[in-house]
Amino acid sequence: MLSVPGAFQNGELGKERYAVRRTPKRGLRQVDFVFDGSEIPGLEQNPDTRSRWAKLARSGKKVMQFLSEGRYVANVVDGKVTFYRRQGRTAAKKH
Prior knowledge:
The protein is mainly beta. It has one domain. The chain has one helix at 52-58; strands at 12-13, 16-17, 20-22, 29-35, 38-44, 63-68, 71-77, 80-84, 92-94. Strand 7 (71-77) and strand 8 (80-84) form a beta hairpin.
């Protein structure tokens, strides 16, 4: 199982420090991670949408979406990672 420690606060994850910004339109938190030389933005889930992830966020869960090349590739809900698969394959794989 992969997990992101619940200790990610104030832009710290393990020994790394990251700048936490707010999106201009909705004021959601955003953190730009670097993984294998690529920037992977992490975006706090907007609780005002109709998705299942937003429902979890409204219930008090900590939900973050991750993007790569303009597409959502994974999310983390309270430390548990779900990777999305490309179209034509099964929907999501939890780790």
